[in-house]
Specification:
CATH architecture: 2-Layer Sandwich
Strand content: 25-35%
Distance between the termini: 80 Å
Number of strands: 3
Largest sheet: 3 strands, antiparallel
Helix content: 40-55%
Shape: rod-shaped
Structural class: alpha+beta
Strand order of the largest sheet: 1-2-3
Radius of gyration: 20 Å
CATH class: Alpha Beta
Amino acid sequence: MVTAELAVAIPSVVLVLALCLVAVNAAVDQIRCIDAARIASRAAARGDDAARIRSLAEQAAPSGARVAVVGAGGSVRVTVSARTGGWGGLAGWELEASAETPVEAGS
């Protein structure tokens, strides 16, 4: 009796654990996207060049992330997006974070 119940319960527990790990990984990637956008936005506000801004964002972002830097009207908006999940047969999620800061006036 116990053997049959364990044969059903153990794969279910493993599946739930795997889904929890995928969700935690997605949450960590979202936080990394937020941090990357924030770091790059601060660099842009200081007046760093575009290559440096993109480099800082890519270092802090999850692997394979895309970085967009748009400056308009005295402010800069940095958007970092990444795909996560997709483990096994799952489709995964598209994560995105952006930060906007005003650009300091040159002295």
